[in-house]
């Protein structure tokens, strides 16, 4: 997607539709682009590097402080499209399915309600940060080490660009009861990408090798953090903490949320925390008779 220029085409198309007549609309545009790309299965790292060459001139034209750039990017790419939207092709949404036997489209009503909550909070928070920045007289300033990113003029049209994303999400929804549906969806999306983007890729073999190598790093990173966290959860000290958390008055769902958040903070990895919670915490909550779909969403 990145090498062919498809992500660039999608981003530019959204930018044209949204316009750039106000600073807030500019931030919303970046959020929308990040959301569409990550919900379509594009890595958050690719999204960041796609948005950098687009956001620099946009922030400069609208005179927005560059320090605000992470807000729309991580709000759009690291919240509802990562954890709550039905069918999200993220590792955080995949891990609980292995323990609970649920699907990626689990509990759509709860998912949409949580996504709407995140959306409203994000809109308000981004508006607050922008208003505060403008009130403080902060504006865009050139950086001496600013990197110039060269964007190719030869890119696929919008229809071809979104086809792999649509095929991935479509496969997940159509085959949501099939085991390992994400792997199937990704395979379909990769094959479609290889076919339709062939004219835009000078050397598919090199790109495939680079993509394979790049995918190994996050796989090992996630595995190592889960391993570290698992060892940590087996310690006597953590057992005491977990027992204290599980005794929190009220619904056991509160203690599950606190436990997952605690592990996430300790190991510094959301996917690692979900993996640890799924293997170490969820079985106990299943024995309490709690709905697996609810556990999937909360973990």
Automatic annotation (TrEMBL):
Give the signal peptide, or none.
Answer: none
Kindly state which keywords UniProt assigns to this record, in alphabetical order.
Membrane, Transmembrane, Transmembrane helix
Task: Note whether Transferase occurs among the keywords.
Answer: no
Residue ranges crossing the lipid bilayer per the database entry: 26-52, 64-83, 104-128, 158-174, 181-200, 220-241, 253-277
A GO cellular component term found in this entry reads:
plasma membrane
The molecular function terms of the Gene Ontology recorded here are: gluconate transmembrane transporter activity
Report whether Nucleotide-binding shows up as a keyword of the record.
Answer: no
Q: What is this protein called?
A: D-beta-hydroxybutyrate permease
């Amino acid at each position: 997607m990145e090498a062919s220029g498809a992500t660039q085409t999608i981003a530019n198309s959204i930018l044209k539709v949204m316009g750039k007549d106000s600073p807030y609309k500019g931030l919303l545009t970046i959020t929308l682009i990040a959301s569409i790309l990550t919900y379509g299965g594009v890595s958050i790292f690719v999204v960041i590097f796609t948005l950098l060459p687009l956001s620099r001139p946009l922030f400069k034209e609208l005179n927005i402080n560059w320090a605000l750039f992470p807000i729309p990017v991580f709000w759009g790419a690291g919240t509802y499209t990562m954890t709550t939207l039905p069918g999200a092709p993220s590792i955080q949404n995949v891990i609980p399915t292995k323990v609970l036997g649920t699907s990626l489209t689990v509990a759509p009503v709860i998912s949409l309600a949580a996504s709407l909550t995140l959306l409203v909070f994000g809109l308000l928070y981004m508006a607050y940060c922008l208003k505060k920045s403008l009130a403080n007289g902060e504006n865009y300033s050139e950086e001496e080490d600013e990197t110039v990113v060269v964007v190719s003029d030869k890119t696929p049209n919008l229809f071809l660009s979104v086809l792999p994303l649509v095929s991935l999400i479509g496969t997940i929804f159509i085959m949501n009861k099939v085991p390992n549906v994400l792997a199937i969806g990704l395979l379909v999306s990769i094959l479609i990408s290889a076919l339709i983007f062939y004219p835009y890729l000078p050397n598919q073999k090199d790109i495939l090798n680079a993509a394979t190598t790049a995918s190994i790093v996050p796989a090992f990173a996630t595995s190592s953090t889960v391993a570290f966290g698992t060892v940590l959860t087996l310690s006597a000290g953590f057992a005491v903490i977990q027992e204290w958390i599980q005794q929190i008055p009220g619904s056991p769902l509160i203690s599950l949320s606190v436990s997952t958040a605690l592990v996430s903070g300790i190991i510094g990895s959301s996917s690692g925390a979900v993996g640890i919670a799924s293997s170490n915490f969820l079985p106990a909550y299943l024995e309490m008779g709690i709905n697996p779909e609810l556990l999937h969403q909360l973990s």
